[in-house]
Design goal:
It is a single chain. By secondary structure, the chain is of the alpha/beta class. It folds into two domains: about 1-90 and about 285-300, ornithine cyclodeaminase, domain 1, CATH 3.30.1780; about 95-285, 3-Layer(aba) Sandwich (Rossmann fold). It is about 35% helix and about 25% strand. It is built from ten helices and 14 strands. The protein has helices at about 1-15, 90-110, 125-135, 150-160, 170-175, 220-225, 230-235, 240-245, 260-265, 285-300, and strands at about 20, 25-30, 35-45, 50-55, 70-75, 85-90, 115-120, 140-145, 165-170, 180-185, 200-205, 225-230, 255-260, 275-280. The longest helix is centred in the first third of the chain and has 20 residues, at about 90-110. It is globular and about 55 Å long. The two termini are about 35 Å apart.
């Protein structure tokens, strides 16, 4: 996770500086509307590689014990177009998403943040506990999920992996009243309300990724200073922001900027301890490309993976 957080620092700055080309992704519903297929392309000259992530999104998969997002990242040599690697997309997506949230947390959250409220109990919830613990000295994690049994199961697993206190709550306001709040649910309607947030909180919004779905209510965005991974994606896909925009609660100018811009010093980060900061994560292929290229380079050095003659 620490390696991936460092890679996300590189990826987010490169995306904001246009050193990685990230065209708008294609999201197409399946013929029966049971899921989506997503194609995310991109290219960079550092390293000289390009590629795409192809992902199937099936919201009911977790009920079957399967990841909701499944697919692969394909990498190609920039100069010849030769395919060089196919890498599992589920693991790359899980790790880089949590690492990007950790980067945002390290950049925006109060340095003394000690409590972490998690909404959701799937793979991303587990990964985000690890990631946030890597950038802040978290003493207590509070988990809320719509299915309490899943939250209890996750908490039991996390207690074996982390030394901090792990607890489950049936009251979402308890999870929201933490220094860092992470939402990684499949909810289409708000699960976090602005009145529950305490001054100085930092939010990572991860679960909603379409213009018509959101995990927070209007009051959250009204109270927050807002940052995104990529402005273009946010203004096309982030229901957490677009829905309040449509009702006039906020406007596009209320988005301060991209995390990469904060890292570069061209956009201001947190200004005072009582400020509520919000990072809206949609996930961009710059993250996948840099992470997958690193995996490929390490695999070559360590001679691991399966080689196939073209």
């Amino acid at each position: 996770m620490s390696q991936c957080i460092a890679l996300m620092t590189e990826a987010m700055q490169a995306a904001s500086d246009c050193r990685i080309a990230v065209p708008q992704r294609l999201i197409a519903p399946l013929i029966d509307s049971s899921g989506f297929i997503t194609l995310m392309p991109g290219s960079t000259l550092q390293p000289r590689i390009y590629g795409a992530k192809v992902i199937g999104v099936h919201p009911t998969n977790p009920d079957r014990g399967l990841p909701g997002h499944q697919g692969f990242v394909a990498l190609f040599d920039h100069d010849t177009g030769t395919p060089v690697a196919i890498i599992d997309g589920t693991q790359v997506t899980t790790t880089r998403t949590a690492a990007a949230s950790a980067l945002a947390t390290r950049t925006l959250a109060r340095p003394d943040a000690k409590t972490h409220g998690v909404f959701g109990a799937g793979m991303q919830a587990e990964a985000h506990v690890e990631a946030i613990n890597a950038v802040r000295a978290i003493e207590r994690v509070t988990i809320w999920a719509r299915v309490q049994a899943k939250a209890e199961s996750l908490a039991e697993k996390l207690r074996e992996l982390h030394s901090c206190q792990i607890r489950v709550t049936t009251d979402p306001s308890e999870a929201a009243a933490c220094d860092v709040v992470t939402t990684v649910t499949g909810a289409h309607e708000p699960v976090v309300r602005g009145e529950w947030l305490k001054p100085g909180a930092h939010l990572n919004l991860v679960g909603a990724h379409s213009p018509k779905t959101r995990e927070i209510d209007d009051e959250v965005v009204r109270r927050s200073t807002i940052y995104v991974d990529l402005m273009r994606s946010a203004l096309n896909e982030a229901g957490d922001l677009l829905i309040p925009m449509q009702s006039g609660v906020i406007c596009a100018r209320d988005i301060v900027g991209e995390i990469g811009q904060v890292l570069a010093g061209t956009v201001a980060g947190r200004k005072h301890a009582a400020q509520i900061t919000l990072y809206k994560s949609l996930g961009i292929f710059a993250q996948d490309l840099i992470a997958a290229a690193h995996v490929y380079q390490v695999a070559c050095k360590q001679n691991v993976g399966s080689s196939v003659e073209m």
